[in-house]
Amino acid sequence: MIARSLRIMSSRCVVVIGLCVLASGARADNNNDKSPGVSAAVKVDWRHPGPPFEGWGTALAWFAHVSGRFAEPHRTQLADLLYGPEGLALNIARYNIGGGNAPDTPPYLRPGGDVPGFWRKPGADGWNPDADDAWDWSADAGQRWWLDAIKTRVAPRDLILEAFSNSPPYFMTRSGLVSGNVNGLEDNLLPGFETQFARYLARVTAELERRHGIRFRTLSPINEPNTPYWFSTNKQEGAHWSPEGQSRMFVALAQVLKQQGMTTEIAGPDETNPQTFFVDWAGLSADAKAVIRQINVHTYEWIAKSGVRDIAETSGKRLWMSEVDLSPSNVREDINDMRPAIALAQQIVTDINSMNPRAWVLWQAIENRSSDPKNSSNWGLIKADFSNLERPEYQITKKFWAFANFTRFIRPGYRFLKSDHPDALVAENPETNEVVIVAVNPGIVSRILDIRLPDTKRGKLTCKTFITQANDSLATSKPASCAARLTVHSRPMSVVTVVATPQK
């Protein structure tokens, strides 16, 4: 089924949400849910708001390399779904600077994972980044299409772009492949090639900025470095970096950026989980830590997230949750299954409440549709057919709508407030005093949440609710007058968002 426009899909599922506003006596009950529910008070602390939130985003690898070459109108529809104001309204994108295997290497990388590099094949004298004929600026047309599409959909004040690398080009690696060393526990960059690789990354960053009229605020040179993932027979680009190797790379990149007069900041190390990040950070040299302006961490494990927040605060670094996605175990690919949507929503709530990151970025928003139901998953927000560029059917999942419960309403500049409920996220617009509450119910029992908004002196409010559950996708209620104490009916297996706006 080819997805229709977002507006058409939303208009089919407008219902009344179960929101009870105690101060005004207004009430809209869910007659289909007769369970008594579990009551819980949600205390919100407005005295110590977090730093201004920078927004939501996705990595463009690998889906953009494929979908940016889709026939029209498909790729434009997908860009509207992800970055348009009536879609998810994302404002952050992470552009993958491909390494690229040798032209004569038999194809073996996963669909979309074969992101091309911008180099031309080295000659007998090697590869000289100062030579004009060393570069191919026509490469990676798919991802570059997305850069232009995003630029036209996101306001300049909100747009944040980051460039990142998974592997050096093949001719800078020990194995001669961009998927890793033969031994996945050994570094794959050739000894002494840190400056050469840094010059490659810096030149690509600068050239893309010039050609597309954009700016990459940050550049992350390594990805999930201190892991056993990246071995030569892997199906995607990757490279192992020991903490010592990471240190040399960060320092070399800082020197190259300075020499070329670039203001691009360095981000890293984009480690796979907090505990491995701790090992990296402890092993980095003082010089390497000094040049990193933004700490990027992935949250593919739930353990020790708050420890990342502590490092960011004590070091004075900006912190991003720069990559994650998930598919619950034993849940096969099914666009209508709420379990992946609930898992994503809980991931977001836990990441933000535990880490207090300045941004939250999904791995890749569009995933290749599975051809084998027995070995499928629910990664991604949209499932598309990567094999058919001319007629690429795609489907929107429940995860997409659950993500929209956050991205549509918690916008750049909002500040997160502390809540004592593990499944609730609260944010405030400091300019308008609008408050957004997102409540996730992962179980099969209703919850009645007694929420007291932060500042009873605001006066009357207008509340509007949005719910994603089995039969609804961001379904909307009519605005209702309310005050600073709310009772929110959090239904089983649902994500509900309440937007409380002060009345003028």
TrEMBL record:
The keyword Signal applies. The keyword Signal applies. Gene3D superfamilies: Glycosidases (3.20.20.80), Golgi alpha-mannosidase II (2.60.40.1180). Residues 56-267 form the Endo-beta-1,6-galactanase-like domain. InterPro entries: 6GAL-like (IPR039514), 6GAL/EXGAL (IPR039743), GH (IPR017853), Glyco_hydro_b (IPR013780). Residues 1-28 form the signal peptide. This is Endo-beta-1,6-galactanase-like domain-containing protein. It comes from Telluria mixta.
